[in-house]
Amino acid sequence: MALVGDAGYCPGPAIGGSTSLAVLGAYVLAGELARTDDHVAAFARYEDEMRGLVHASREFALGAAKALVPSTRAGVWALTRGAQFFTSLPLWLLRPLVKLNSKGMRLHDSMRVPDYERQGAEVSAP
What we know:
This protein is mostly helical and 126 residues long. The protein is built from 5 helices and no strands. The protein has helices at 6-9, 18-35, 39-68, 73-88, 91-99. The longest helix has 30 residues, at 39-68. It has one domain (6-110). Helix 2 (18-35) packs antiparallel against helix 3. The mean pLDDT is 80.
């Protein structure tokens, strides 16, 4: 048995990239199963491939939760005013500001997708 998505990864409090992990996890599991007839080995490689991404998702979610749930009155005020300010900006100004974030806007921007076809997996289209 293999678990994918939220059931398999428990990614975090609503901001950990669970949809991206679910799609990538299903893809990786299918790719690893296609590479071999040994499902035990495929499950082990699937787990190895996903481990780092799941841990990164959890860390991302915890960091985002800490940033989005302030613990002081000043933090609540700053978060509220900051959100009001950024949502009032015109798109032509907001887009370049967002690009200043070198980590990417979303967790899935940093996810590496294996190319199973080049690795010899039998990939057939439906």
